[in-house]
Amino acid sequence: MTDPKTPSGTDPKTPYGTEARPTYGTEARPTSGTDPTTTSGTEARPTSGTDPTTTSGTEVTTDPVLLSVEDLTVEYATHDGPFRAVDRMSFRIERGGSLAVVGESGCGKSTLARALVRLLKPVSGRIVLDGTDIAALPERRLRPLRRRVQMVFQDPYGSLDPHLTAQQIVAEPLRLAGVVGRAERARRAAELIEQVGLPSAALTRRPSDFSGGQQQRIGIARALASRPELLVCDEATSALDVSVQAHVLNLLRELQAETGIAYLVIAHNLAVVREISTDVVVMRAGRTVETGPTAAVLASPADPYTRALRRAALDPTAIHGVKPRRVPEGSTT
User: Which residue in 50, 131, 134, 274 has its CB near the most CB atoms, within 10 A?
Assistant: First the structure.
């Protein structure tokens, strides 16, 4: 834990803010051909698990791309005029894939994450979720789609209601999704808490009774309650000890293998990026400077900024705090 409890209504990372909650949906996910939120007015693309065969006998494969971001721009209003935090970024995430967005602090990574779950509204560009552009949808039409994209926040304690037990926190999205019966919600919440590796004794405890890693597991269980197709992890391990980080990363890998969920991972730690992602976008000052398969980009970066990030990750003199008295020659290459 690094941050104190966030005051109500002041930070979009907290579930008490005025913006719509990214974790909580209220309506059932629309099925193919009946989605009223498609912008083109045509039949929506079939979602995972639907029959890809048309009535004419011609087989249509489901689009492997789950999320496509096209020329996305996000700005903040300031006294000196608009500040562009995200500048015409484009990328896509395939179903069951893992994309990392990496860059230095302040480059716009978290702003991008909040825009993808529509905690922030972009000024231009497209966020196409399974054929539907959600970038400019009004809340009424956006609400049925919220459960398909969930978020795990950087500060686990600040994102959890301190007055609820772990079981109540995880059960809340189920209630909003229309799961009838308190006993059924409690049963499913207990299953999710067990799935993320917490004991049954955790059910009746409140967030302050848990360690940082345990709190993050509760946040992951809450995000999984609505059975999302994409999980946005905004620096989900940065506030945790290294050993706890490894446990959370292992959990995310296991969940992906079990459920086929896709990840967008916001990080500045290249070790985390290497462990969890198959593709990477390197971001600087709101823009993409390099993109490609994670292994290739980290092994042989093409952009000078990416090379500088890699050197900083490998150079012990770049670590803040007590530095070694002598760095062996060649250790920074």
Answer: 134
